[in-house]
Amino acid sequence: MTGQVRIPATYMRGGTSKGVFFKAEDLPEAARTPGRARDRLFQRVIGSPDPYAAHIDGMGGATSSTSKCVIIGPASVPDHDVDY
Fold it and tell me: Where do runs of H (alpha helix) occur along the chain?
């Protein structure tokens, strides 16, 4: 993936944690499975890498432990509501 890509997402906060939630089907094809493309996308979303470890150039929560990217999709396991 190069350049800017528009991806629908929802930003939620709970307590001290923050997260950017994506629907699995909205991710670019290359980021729908684990790997380098997904890692790079999520790192950019939360503002990483950051030489000051503050994650302030993105949707991060200023520390890696409070910054999350979440993928939600239809359940792949019977009796479950979603894959998370």
Answer: 36-46
